[in-house]
UniProtKB/TrEMBL annotation:
Region forming the signal peptide: none
Keywords: ATP-binding, Cell junction, Coiled coil, Cytoplasm, Cytoplasmic vesicle, Cytoskeleton, Membrane, Microtubule, Motor protein, Nucleotide-binding, Phosphoprotein
Compositionally biased region (Polar residues): 709-718
Gene that this polypeptide is encoded by: Kifc3
One Pfam family named in its UniProt record: Kinesin
Protein name: Kinesin-like protein
Membrane topology: Peripheral membrane protein
Coiled-coil portions: 2-146, 189-241
Keyword Membrane: yes
Organism per entry: Falcunculus frontatus
Binding-site list for ATP: 424-431
Family per record: Belongs to the TRAFAC class myosin-kinesin ATPase superfamily. Kinesin family.
GO biological process, one term: microtubule-based movement
GO molecular-function terms, A-Z: ATP binding; microtubule binding; microtubule motor activity
Annotated region (Disordered), positions in chain: 678-728
Length: 728
């Protein structure tokens, strides 16, 4: 109901404001007293309503102190205060309206005064004009009775009367204008009277609404009184019920108390027994910490002993596991050697600044802590594992890598063909592994240094000659890096001796005898090799580089001649043209590189599936590596991979190719050794000692050696061949 009253008051304020806007141009002076009286009556009614509300609030405070409607009463009080504030605002608006009515009444009085003045002026002007008109008529009448002179005067008067008529017209037009103004003012007064009548009708409607609101307020007051009376009755009824229940419960409590008293008399002996038991338990609890500490101490000792036994067992098992792992790897390497499989090593380069920053430069390669032949690649959210013969992490040094391949290098001295080639995508570190830097050389220079070291160690019995050739395959053309004309194209042909071996006619060979000679050869060949800058590698190799080291040895004691060849190959990296940004000649180079590497993959597939025809001649690279891939060589592939996240697709392809290469069996390797003829008798004395002749059988000092008979020579040759066959 208070909300309804609030809405009605708002409507009343809006209606008053509308009436105030409509009364802006009316004659408010006539109705000002009426509106003021009506306003005063409305104020008195408002005060009466406020008094009734205060009376209702006083009546509600006493009986409804504990009533559940307190929250609602607080809300009503808040709404009442809001209504009071709105009533104050309405009073202020009424005061403003009175001021505006007073101002408009004053303006209307001024207009009426101006209208009265204008009417008076008009009456005076009409009177003056009428007097002049009468004077003129009298003059005209007097002049008509006179002679000719009178005619002249009449004409003159007529002229003067024309001017008077013109002035009279002006006065009449002004009079008409004033009449129009008076009519307009009367019309405005009529409109204001109509608005006043509508305001009176609205006022009557507002009074009827106020009467209706008062009736509704009385009805709401009656309902509230009835509800309060009903709540009072409910409260009294609830109090009576609670009192009766309390009496019943009190009676039950008294009965229970009597039972408890009887039970207390019977429970005293039991209480004494419980007290005795409690004292004994208290003593046990007091002694419990000591017993607990002693028990915990013994338990800790037993647990520590068990843990130590488990640790020792684990250490022993780990030691056995590692020993078995090394033994398995040794057996596997021996099996690979016997089968003639291509051994595959993997090397992961470290993350560099060229890889950039962010998620694309994250490390996607992890290693097995217990097995150095396994690595894991995270590709598209899935982990793929690969098993090779050996895996080198990024922190592995050039020395550690060479220690794994030096056994192959030294077998070159014994007459075996050895091939080591680096494979991988561009920018994976192939050239660094094979060539290295001046301060940290790679496999090529370390291999030659090791060969010189081995040759010096066998200098007492063997004569060795080491020659070096360097070539590159650029755009499917074989070029000599050590020749005077490196642009000259060379061809690969079969040896004319009928051995089936391949050789390159016209390929320059340098005989090296010291480390200085090695450095000169490397510098000379490195300058002529083709390298260019791409988006993936600042110094990208654009050709396949081959370093061919030939070691020819002669055993001075037996005449045994050995020929070993060491092929060190740095393959150009596979690349995606879209990522490397190759154009023009770089694009043509990339196409030839990818074509030759694809041909190498075809050869590996044919060897793995044991096909009758192996397509070695599809590329200059595979044709030149035919000796190394056809079972007549110890072959090692060093696969280079990048750990960067953005290169995982290329890394996956390289590792899959490495696994396929690892499963290729080339067969047992043969040794290139032959017996040579001895040019003099002195060379036969050593075989004599090898055959077990006594020192006494040698010729006395200072004498010449006797020539052996043909039978003795043939028997010695046969025994030497048997010993060489056994050693081979």
């Amino acid at each position: 109901q208070v909300e309804t009253l609030k809405e009605k008051l708002l409507e009343q304020a809006q209606e008053i404001s509308r009436l105030r806007s409509e009364l802006g141009g009316t004659d408010a002076e006539k109705h000002r007293d009426l509106l003021a009286a009506e306003n005063e009556r409305l104020r008195q009614e408002m005060k009466a309503c406020e008094g009734e509300l205060r009376e209702l609030r006083r009546q509600q405070q006493a009986p409804c102190r504990d009533c559940p409607h307190l929250q609602e009463k607080a809300g009503l009080q808040e709404q009442l205060s809001q209504l009071q504030r709105e009533a104050e605002e309405t009073r202020a608006k009424l005061v403003e309206l009175d001021l505006e009515v007073q101002q408009k009444t004053n303006r209307l009085a001024e207009v009426e005064l101006r209208l009265k003045d204008s009417l008076a002026e008009r009456a005076e002007e009409e009177e003056r004009l009428s007097r002049r008109l009468r004077d003129s008529q009298e003059t005209i009448a007097s002049l008509k009775s006179q002679p000719q002179q009178i005619k002249y005067i009449i004409k003159t008067v007529e002229v003067e009367s024309t001017k008077a008529k013109q002035a009279l017209c002006e006065i009449q037009s002004r009079n008409q204008y004033l009449q129009e103004q008076v009519g307009m003012q009367k019309q405005v007064l009529k409109e204001m009277e109509q608005q006043l009548q509508s305001s009176q009708k609205t006022e009557a409607q507002l009074r009827a609404q106020i009467v209706m609101y008062e009736a509704e307020l009385e009805r709401a007051h009656g309902q509230m009184l009835e509800e309060m009376q009903a709540m009072e009755e409910e409260k009294n009824h609830a109090i009576e019920e609670a009192f009766s229940r309390a009496q019943v419960e009190m009676k039950a409590v008294h009965e229970n108390l009597a039972g408890v008293r009887t039970n207390l008399l019977t429970l005293q002996p039991a209480l004494r027994t419980l007290t005795h038991d409690y004292n004994s338990l208290k003593r046990q609890v007091r002694d419990f910490p000591l017993l607990l500490q002693e028990t915990l101490r013994s338990a800790r000792a037993e647990i520590s002993q068990a843990i130590e036994e488990v640790h020792s067992t684990n250490r022993e098992l780990l030691r056995k596991y590692r020993r078995e792992l090394q033994l398995r790897k040794k057996c596997h390497n021996e099996l690979v050697r016997l089968k003639g499989n291509i051994r595959v090593f993997g090397r992961v380069r470290p993350i560099t600044k060229e890889d950039g920053e962010g998620p694309e430069a994250a490390n996607a390669v992890t290693f097995d802590a217990d097995d150095d032949a396994v690595l894991h690649l995270l590709h598209k959210g899935k982990q793929v594992s690969f098993e090779l013969d050996k895996v080198f992490p990024p922190q592995a040094s050039q020395e550690e890598v060479f220690q794994e391949v030096q056994a192959l290098v030294t077998s070159c001295i014994d007459g075996y063909n050895v091939c080591i080639f680096a494979y991988g995508q561009t920018g994976a570190g192939k050239t660094y592994t094979m060539e290295g830097t001046a301060a940290n050389p790679g496999i090529n220079q370390r291999a030659l240094q090791l060969l010189f070291s081995e040759v010096r160690g066998k200098a007492a019995d063997w004569d060795y000659a080491i020659t070096v050739s360097a070539a590159e395959i650029y755009n499917e053309a074989l070029r000599d890096l050590l020749g005077k004309e490196p642009q000259e194209k060379l061809e690969i042909k079969l040896c004319p001796d009928g051995s089936g071996q391949l050789y390159v006619p016209g390929l320059t060979e340098f005989r090296v005898q010291s480390v200085e000679d090695i450095n000169k050869v490397f510098e000379f060949g490195h300058v002529k090799r083709v390298t260019e800058c791409t988006n993936l590698n600042e110094h990208s190799s654009r050709s396949h580089a081959l370093l061919i080291v030939t070691v020819r040895g002669l055993d001075r004691s037996t005449g045994l001649r050995t020929t070993g060849k060491l092929n060190l190959v740095d393959l150009a990296g596979s690349e995606r043209v879209g990522r490397s940004g190759a154009e023009g000649s770089r694009l043509r180079e990339a196409q030839h590189i990818n074509k030759s590497l694809s041909a190498l993959g075809d050869v590996i597939y044919a060897l793995r599936s044991r096909q009758g025809h192996v397509p070695f001649r599809n590329s200059k690279l595979t044709y030149l590596l035919q000796d190394s891939l056809s079972g007549d060589s110890k072959t090692l592939m060093m696969v280079q991979v990048s750990p960067a996240e953005k290169n995982t697709s290329e890394t996956l392809c390289s590792l899959k190719f490495a696994e396929r290469v690892r499963s290729v069996e080339l067969g047992p390797v043969s040794r290139k050794a032959e017996l040579g003829s001895w040019p003099s008798q002195e060379h036969l004395e050593v075989p004599k000692r090898l055959l077990g002749d006594s020192p006494g059988s040698a010729a006395p000092p200072g004498r010449g050696h006797a020539s052996p008979s043909p039978g003795q020579l043939s028997s010695r040759s046969a025994s030497i061949r048997r010993k060489l066959h056994t050693s081979g």
